[in-house]
Amino acid sequence: MSTTEKMGFQTEVSQLLHLVTHSLYSNKEIFLRELISNASDAIDKLKFVALSDNNLYENDSDLKIQIRFDETANTLTISDNGIGMNRQELIDNLGTIAKSGTKAFFEQLSGDAGKDSELIGQFGVGFYSAFIVADKVTVNTRKAGESEAHQWVSDGHSDFEISTSDKASRGTDIVLHLKSSETQFTNRWQLQQIITKYSDHISVPVELWQDAIAEEKDEDGNITVAAQAGKFEQINRAKALWLRNKSDISDEEYQTFYKHISHDFQDAATWTHNKVEGKLEYTSLLFVPQKAPFDLFQRDSKRGLKLFVQRVFIMDDAEQFLPHYLRFIKGVIDSNDLPLNVSREILQDGAVTQSLRKACTKRALDMMGRLAEDNEKYANFWQEFGNTLKEGIGEDFANRENLFKLLRFASTQDETGNPTTALADYVARMPEKQEKIYYLIADSQTAAKHSPHLEIFAKNGIEVLLMWEPIDEWMMGQLHEFEGKPFEAINQTDISGELFQTESDETDDSDSDKDQYQTLIENIKTTLGDHVVDVRISKRLTKTPTCVVLESGALSNQMQRIMKAAGQ
Ligand code: ADP
Ligand code: MG
């Protein structure tokens, strides 16, 4: 006999539910996207496990998603005959949040509804979005291959109830008991519009219930509308989006698909869709998000593409197809050359994987190259992913040339102070006698902007690239030259060359300077003792009285700090 057990949500879930119901209200229809997306994922997962155990189909391999509504009861039901969940999975999946980045997400919440709803969008609420429109949700589910079915019920506050259920068919029914205000979700025409939008790219049929229609006759007794029994009608085209022709796919369809695979609420910044035939046969569809995920710099963050082999879903987060520095790219790869039983281990060192990885990397870099043609979009991209891309300079030698084109720096020539200068821009602006690309790394944007080292460069009208990100020191250590022009840190550079006109070049009073300041210099040397190697009169500065320079070959300030932090 069935016993009902009451369980509390993990604290974070209760918090999230509260946020969802209070701040996603203006965008409520997305709950359908999330639930259809989950149903489609469940069917993909069943197909995958059934590859090795065909019995799991239990004589029902007609996989589909069905949606029905009941105006009188004010309910909406989303059903799938996918993999289903057992009791423990219900508790784990619908009672906790197991995502990486959860802690960071909750820490960043501000209490400001507008800002927070954007954050929630980025975080992804998935199943819990049902509570935007429902005040009670029932999940009835039986896992493929198991005999017992279970029911989960909650009002979306602090707890849920689990009991056994008599559901006989495999898969999951999600019943939303809609809030009394949400009548549009039991209106067939409105439902059809929303569902079409969110399901056209889904590769299995999505069917919507059509009520019975009574026969209609005109005055002469001729039948004008034939009577129809109630039935399910397929409302999507049920063809995987990436298999369709590019020219037939609208931007909106790409964006909806992006949200389906990435769980992002925001549109993608751009994408690249390619079908390749020949020695290697594959289709790839790669997206650049607009916002970096919370866990971009976390070690255990999920990354990689959704892998299909001959149109069968194989796995999420296949990270073998892109280098680590492109971990923010989302997308799908569908290969005809990999075996259906491919595992992560096989992928690891396969020749096909290597070729696909090379191809996907190139596609991704080309896509960003095209994005860079739009300054505004690229500035946003750079702010979100610039530091991640910089990792590529040391990681990906083969694509260096392409990566160089994607780098952006702040520059003394650009008043905004934002990183918008490409290396090619810098080189194009170099005066003929200048041979090096000058740069300065400081601790912060402000420190960079006001560094006394810049004075002599400003005076001579020589542009300097400014950097202040922790990764810059490391990156510049890997960069030696661009288009034959060596890079040089300005706090290590020799300014005696003809490029630099100093005050004293004009008046030539350097000897008298020396005599005049000899006592001062001796005093400073005595005071600073071992802390400095030497104290010299300099022509570098025009406004600031003193500055610290490094001996050439010495460890930079940032490097010294990094070593110190590492305990050396
Ligand atoms: P996500 O889809 O990002 O994993 P969700 O909150 O949408 O997050 O869903 C949480 C989990 O609940 C899913 O990962 C899945 O394991 C499970 N789940 C949700 N809906 C279904 C379903 N219709 N069939 C089977 N499992 C489901
Ligand atoms: Mg989901």
Automatic annotation (TrEMBL):
Protein localization: Cytoplasm
Keywords of this entry: ATP-binding, Chaperone, Cytoplasm, Nucleotide-binding, Stress response
Highest taxon listed in the record's lineage: Bacteria
GO molecular function, one term: unfolded protein binding
Primary localization class, coarse: cytoplasm
One Gene Ontology term, aspect cellular component: cytoplasm
Histidine kinase/HSP90-like ATPase domain ranges (all copies): 27-182
Gene3D superfamilies the UniProt entry points to: 3.30.230.80, 3.40.50.11260, Heat shock protein 90, C-terminal domain, Histidine kinase-like ATPase, C-terminal domain
Region entry A, spans: 1-344
Record SMART domains: HATPase_c
Annotated ATP binding sites: 34, 38, 80, 85, 93, 99-101, 122-127, 172, 344
PANTHER family, per the entry: HEAT SHOCK PROTEIN 90 FAMILY MEMBER
Function statement: Molecular chaperone. Has ATPase activity.
Subunit structure comment from the entry: Homodimer.
Family: Belongs to the heat shock protein 90 family.
Descriptive protein name: Chaperone protein HtpG
Provenance organism: Ostreibacterium oceani
Lineage, top ranks: Bacteria, Pseudomonadati, Pseudomonadota, Gammaproteobacteria, Cardiobacteriales
Protein encoded by which gene: htpG
